[in-house]
Amino acid sequence: MSATQDTKALTLDEIRALATKALLAHGCDEANAAAIADTVTRAERDGSASHGLFRLPGYIKSMQSGKVNGKAQPVIEQTLPAVISVDGAHGYAPHTLAESLPVLAQAASQTGIAVMRLYNSFHFAALWPEVEYLADQNLVGIACTCFKPSVAPAGTSTAFFGTNPLAFAFPRPGSTPVVFDMATSRLAKGDVMIAARDGHDLPDGTGLGPDGQPTNDPNEVLKGVLLPFGGYKGSAISLMVELLSSALTGDQFSYEAAKQDNNDGGPARGGELIIALSPDLIVGDGWRDHSSDFFKEMEKLEGLRLPGARRHRNRGDEGTRDVNAALITTITDLANTPSV
Ligand code: NDP
């Protein structure tokens, strides 16, 4: 395979404007378009191409098919002092999260720990925005969601788990938080799709072809299954994500989503569970110095790279971002041919 990618430089404002125009042209109201465009722009800003403009055609397909309501307004209920229940009203997650995360943060800041279950929602993005939001309020954040089956549990060759991301953020007053946000598959499916598009081989252990044999060819893995990271250990974490984001939200497990989804190219309906913890209330003032000493000690280690560091470094660059040129043409065409 040879690299075929052809890119064009766009400013972050151009990325946001293009995404907003395309979303408004195909069924979003202003609030939902602004929230999705913000999510997409922040992904491009941080160098996460698989959750940037790359997702826009999928967002639009699911509005065109009638699966997702681009004008959804979430219904937020605080059912207990530490439990927030959010009906996403069959809309995309970004607007729902923008409305509901402040309620979760407020609850955790009063009770020490609070959990938010999001259901009837469609998540097609990364999870770091929600946990970083919490860390910015001096809270620890944990979030997870599942998807349609594309990952074979350890020992099997049948897709049953989603790529089931798990994200964690820990605040570091005076510095960027420590954040990890990772698929529990060896690679996120978006990265496999991008490798197929750009003609790149996959790392060993990414997946199996339709014959159940390991392969480095992204096209074969897309016809076959992905594998969890780290063998049975990653598989156990993926299992946990299924249970937390489905059994505990009341929304679909990945295998249920597969039966119900219309496969229009956008996301399946699913739940997301977000937990917020307040170190100030749980352990008291000392946590700042204690964890700061931990990071100082850890950062002495040669070769260390903290999770989130790449994202935060990219964020400091206010220049243009290189975006796949064919993708820009596709989205520009969508923006110029409204379907509503
Ligand atoms: P990566 O493997 O690229 O990165 C996972 C985490 O590890 C990141 O926090 C990253 O930090 C960190 N990291 C990467 N390399 C290193 C390193 N060498 N040393 C230390 N830390 C490192 O992400 P994935 O491909 O697993 O996931 C990509 C995205 O896909 C996630 O944002 C996830 O939420 C999303 N996703 C969403 C789904 C959905 O249904 N909505 C489904 C599956 C995935 P940094 O950011 O700084 O690189």
In short:
The protein has helices at residues 12-25, 30-45, 56-64, 93-111, 128-136, 189-198, 218-223, 231-247, 254-260, 279-282, 287-298, 309-315, 325-336; strands at residues 7-10, 75-80, 83-92, 113-122, 140-145, 166-170, 178-182, 207-208, 214-215, 225-226, 269-277, 321-324. The chain is of the alpha+beta class.
Distance between the termini: 40 Å
Beta-strand percentage range: 15-25%
Level of helix content?
40-55%
CATH structural architecture: 2-Layer Sandwich
Low-confidence stretches: none
How many domains, in number, for the residues? 1
Structure class: alpha+beta
Helix run count: 13
Radius of gyration: 20 Å
Query: Class in CATH?
Result: Alpha Beta
Bound molecules: NADPH dihydro-nicotinamide-adenine-dinucleotide phosphate
Q: Largest sheet, described in full?
A: 7 strands, mixed
CATH homologous group name: Malate/L-lactate/L-sulpholactate dehydrogenase, NADPH binding domain
The CATH topology assignment is Ribosomal Protein S8, Chain: A, domain 1
* Spatial strand arrangement across the major sheet: 2-3-4-11-5-6-7
| 3D shape | globular
How many strands appear in the DSSP assignment?
A: 12
Order of secondary-structure elements: EHHHEEHEHEEEHEEHEHHEHHHEH
Q: Roughly what is the average pLDDT, rounded to an integer? A: 96
List keywords for this structure.
globular; 340 residues; Ribosomal Protein S8, Chain: A, domain 1; seven-stranded mixed sheet; 19% strand; binds NADPH dihydro-nicotinamide-adenine-dinucleotide phosphate; 13 helices; single chain; three-stranded antiparallel sheet; alpha+beta
